[in-house]
């Protein structure tokens, strides 16, 4: 039963925070289906640039943010971040021009940086390898649930257009921002710090949902599986972070997989409702129909992670997911000239559902194969940076001169998925080769075999 409570207070709160983060980051895709662009005197290309600024801020401050998290602890830093970007998201309500749009986008990126990577590291501290992929994927599903729910929320909020003198898009930013601030308060009362100190930030003993015996179990089951695993976050200096970036090629490979595989996601999240609207639906139906794509993605991602945890296979599952995504992208590209809007919508749902299904598996793959907790902190931050750089590049997939069919955009997505297959195969082969080297060595030599400066006693997960 303690595992259920752990999922509730730890994973549940981290999901709420990531849900709010994605809600505040992606509700712009619903806003641009209204008069938002005209009201603040901008263009779609300015919206692209603003979102690129947000993602650039996340990339720049990702590793520094995780260094602060390791220094002061997850509850305090994640709560501060959530409260800060919630305030910024709320004040988006009062944007009037391009400058205020750029300013709020940058501040959102600044305060959102480090949240996801920090959450992934915390999950790695509390859960065993057989539990990580599913939990990390469940965390990532908050992303897709936020995008899908954002469309539904937007469809309802848009009926408030003109109430209290506010536009429909202003109500959208206001309500989403207030929700984020409330989530930050939830962190204060429930988010545990480490397996050995599960009391929340408020420090009230009655809010601790675990007994001393359960805390010992939570800590020891992780250590018994792998004695190199840490249950406390170590501090990281800038010099150490730079050293890990220079010496550990594995974290770069996983970051590259995240980057290339998530370029399509960047464009599809921003322009998904617009693409559906261009099929012949009004803005209300477009936002509602867009939510279906994300809920389908949640189902596929959770299923893939469950299979990955049961089989302890990471690379092969990532490969299969990418092949499916490539097939769906090919069908989408082939039907560009089709005139049946419902047929095109059905294919688009499959296309969107096949996008980014193994994001959590990639993070769990790294967690299982990097023993040094400091290197893992840097590695998870680099993966998130890669994902956000992918989203940054993806903003340019769907251009005004390619509208409304976006044939060039869909063709580019097919090429990106093909590149992802190559990287996944490379990573799988590297881990397989490392395992082969371990098998060839004697038991004593295997215990002393070095991987990235650490002793390796267990096989790598492929």
Structural features, described:
The protein has helices at 2-26, 28-31, 36-39, 44-72, 74-91, 98-112, 115-126, 129-157, 168-190, 212-225, 238-247, 249-278, 283-311, 315-334, 341-353, 359-369, 373-394, 407-440, 443-448, and strands at residues 450-451, 454-455. The protein is mainly alpha-helical and 462 residues long. The chain has one domain (2-455): Up-down Bundle (Growth Hormone, Chain: A). The model is unreliable at 451-455 (pLDDT under 50). GO terms for molecular function: transmembrane transporter activity. It is found in: Membrane. Residues 1-20 form the signal peptide.
Write the layout of secondary structure elements.
Layout: H1 2-26, H2 28-31, H3 36-39, H4 44-72, H5 74-91, H6 98-112, H7 115-126, H8 129-157, H9 168-190, H10 212-225, H11 238-247, H12 249-278, H13 283-311, H14 315-334, H15 341-353, H16 359-369, H17 373-394, H18 407-440, H19 443-448, E1 450-451, E2 454-455
Antiparallel strand pairs: 1-2
Helix pairs in contact: 1-5, 1-7, 1-8, 1-9, 4-5, 4-6, 4-17, 5-6, 5-7, 5-9, 7-17, 8-13, 8-16, 11-17, 12-13, 12-16, 12-17, 12-18, 13-15, 14-15, 14-18
